[in-house]
Amino acid sequence: MVAAPVHGRLTIGQALGAALKGAGWHARAVGAQTWRIEPGADPDLHRASHAAPPETSGEDLTVTGTKRSLSLRDLPMSGEVVTLGGGSNLRPPPDAASLAARLPGLTLGGPGAGQSRLFLQGVADSAFNGAAPATVAVVVDNARISYAGAAPEVRLVDVDRVEVLEGPQGTLYGAGTLGGIYRVVTNRPDPERASGDWTGWTGGTAHGGLDGGGSAVVNLPLVAGAVALRAVGYGDHAAGWVQSAGQDATNASDTAAGRLALAASPGGGWRIDATLLGQSIHTANSGYVYAPDTLDRPAQAVEPSASSIDHAALTVTGPLGTGELVVTSGRTVLNTRLAFDATQGAGDFGLSDLALFHEMTRERLWDNEVRATGHSGRLSWVTGLSWFLVDYDRWHSLTGTAGETVGLDVMARSTSEIAGFADLSRTFARHWQIDLGARLLRDTLDETLAVPGNATSATVQRHTGVSPSAALSWHPGTATTAFARVASAFRQGELDQEDTGSTGKNATFAGDHLTTAELGVRQVLKGDGLLTVSAHYTRWNDMSADTLLANNIIATRDAGAAQIVGVQGQMRITPVRGWRIETGWELEAAHLVRNQLGIALDDTRLPVVPAYTARLGALRAFPMLGGAAELGGDLRQIGPGRLSFDPELDRRIAPRLETGLSGEIRWSHVLAAIRIDNLANARSDTYAYGNPFRLTTSPQFVPMRPRTVLLSLGFRP
Fold this sequence. Notes:
Elements: H1 12-20, E1 25-29, E2 35-39, E3 55-56, E4 62-63, E5 70-71, E6 79-83, H2 96-100, E7 106-109, E8 117-120, E9 136-140, E10 143-144, E11 159-166, H3 170-173, E12 180-186, E13 195-205, E14 210-223, E15 227-238, E16 243-244, E17 253-267, E18 270-283, E19 296-297, E20 305-320, E21 323-341, E22 354-376, E23 379-400, E24 405-428, E25 432-450, E26 457-477, E27 480-491, E28 495-496, E29 507-508, E30 512-525, E31 529-548, E32 554-573, E33 579-595, E34 612-624, E35 627-638, E36 656-666, E37 670-677, E38 708-715
Parallel strand pairs: 9-12, 16-19
Antiparallel strand pairs: 1-2, 3-6, 4-5, 6-11, 7-8, 9-10, 11-12, 13-14, 13-38, 14-15, 15-17, 17-18, 18-20, 20-21, 21-22, 22-23, 23-24, 24-25, 25-26, 26-27, 27-30, 28-29, 30-31, 31-32, 32-33, 33-34, 34-35, 35-36, 36-37, 37-38
């Protein structure tokens, strides 16, 4: 074998690809810093133009959410990678909702603007944002940043990629990963050269006002080749579109964020990465209405909301034998404030002139892990120890028109897990690979609920268990991978606020136990093409879900047991040079098969699970005005679903069509773009509730955002 010379600053994969190009060999990642040279030409599926929009899939993309560096092609489970490097950082940054439009397995519930929940593979429990732990863990680089309630909607500014691993991830990530993980991988500081870019955008929302914002990135080497600092800033104003009390666009929101990253390479292959991240979202008013196909509602009290995240993380990485040692620690504080008009549906609670219901939450999460990877012959592994602690506090209160305040309840919950985990992979019989993993964990839950005038309820739960996983994959050639996987995850139980039991104190319920079996295949197609098809079956025991109590306060209940059967697929092809076509689809049948809610159910479907989703996207690249231009369009059909198990609260969500159109032109340092969403200006209902106190007195609808047009200009010296 004769390899070509390689020059320039490249990743390991890029350097090996360039060296082996045309030699009849290709490199495959088999570990964090280990690559295997194999016969056969590299299909090289990810040679997109610099101006291309975010790409999904791509067989040569690397997935590190498995805590080992694996090619997406070889991943023995359902998962996707959306790359956001290159020209993507010169556009208005996407968010989780933008990615959900490209990934058939990812759905969102909630009204948005810091109040959304993420769901994968139909593992959805409620449209409410209660205190129940989430089913999808959000991870930034190496640290988990969420556990309970809504997902922190970290805007994807200066981000390299987002990895979505579907199905339970209890072996590697522990409790609260029933549906999978959503991992954001940021761009690291570059100690070799100074660089930066900025992007500005403006536009408008129909039935609303002007939108606008900007972002900037600066990379500064402090010690050449050894130490660098990277700073990111972001601000955005999104015009509202719901009219209330005679005022236009009252549900406008403002987001501000910043990130500092420091990287140091002291030598010997060691690297130190430190990150500070902060973001705040303020929304002036809620966005629900009382009738379908409208954006107006009667006069009522203003219902503002706010959420914030403050995150700090430190990661030390270095060589360990044939593999790598990673030590990471992250500290995250999440705060939310919500206010709802309480003049209807709230009773009096001792106040005769109710005005507003207030909810405040604070979640403090500390995530720590030490892990090692390595390989020997056909065997590779990752093993480690982890410990995380989550302190969650929630306060409910009511205020009257004269300003007096009554406290309703105070919840204090401390959750911790200490665990050891290991995942081993071994190739055999040339084309086969088996993966076996397990997590031995010890979970602790301490929770109290104090209600004025009532006894304080408390529970202490201890749980020792094992979260196993096993996968078998077949690689008959460089273009095909078939896999079968079985995995499990656990979610801790808590106080049952509705069941007070015979002692007058609240009972507790067991935590969720979920197991998923899946089969799938990935096939590299001619040119820049990829086909992925998979099917999954899930059994979900002791399913907890957020519901409404008789006083219309959100609480968590044990719903029973559920069963989910689904199939999904994605395909990307390049039919002719300059064109790219992407399709994706998912079918889900998710039902409650054992009912412990205490109410009769004629409809057993799980909430916030569309019966189907389907997407079609097309992109055309061509030269224009001395630059590289692209035009793209996409359609996404979201099938019918429901919002709640409770027949009195349930709302059928009709199918809706999401549409978008984009265009851009890029020269050497400048990118000009336009994006139009909701071309038909539809007002379809979404998977969200409005005011919980008015649900039993008035129907509510949360319409999708009207037509939005954004013009942007990005510059990179």
